[in-house]
Amino acid sequence: MVTAPYDILRSGFPYYMTIGQRRVTTNPSDIGFGKENIYVLIRGGLGNGVRVLNWEDENLGIYEASGELGTGAGLLVDEEENLYISDETGHKVIVLDKDGNHIHSWGEYGENPGQLSRPSGMSFDPDGNIVLSDTQNNRVQRFT
Asked: Residue 88 belongs to what domain range?
């Protein structure tokens, strides 16, 4: 079981590089990868949003989701580099395009199927559906 960063090194994963640092990635909570960019979900400190970096550690800006984002918890990037952000305090998922423009949001607070309470981690299943950890409802939901 890996419990600390140094355990990763002991597990056979050698250190390669650090990107971001405090100057641009205060309180990172998740990361996603595009073809050329690295998307770092940040919360608190310098604000909530997605910091965009490249592998040369150049800061390409921040997407703030136009006031839509409360507390980001999870981040997914699809093949078209659309960004899916789970918003714990807004009880929703926000979708941005690769330029940071708001496409749409979905979800609402509640305990019924399809409703959310503090959504966090997300992943795509083999069919491309979003599988989401609905934390306060103690369940996992799948959205098509």
From this structure: 5-143
Q: Which residues pair with 32 in a beta bridge?
A: 39
Contact 63, 50 (CB under 8 A): yes
- Check residue 2 and give its pLDDT: 45
Nearest to 62 by CA among 49, 75, 71: 49
The domain that holds 11 is classified in CATH as: 2.120.10.30
- Answer whether 105's CB lies under 8 Å from 67's CB: no
Q: Is the dihedral of CA 24, 88, 70, 80 positive or negative?
A: positive
Question: CA-CA distance, 69 to 61, in Å (whole number)?
Answer: 16
Query: Has this prediction a pTM greater than 0.85?
Result: no
- Most confident by average pLDDT, 12-26, 49-63, 73-87: 73-87
What is the domain count for the chain?
Answer: 1
pLDDT at 130 over 60: yes
- CA distance linking residue 76 with residue 85, whole number of Å: 7
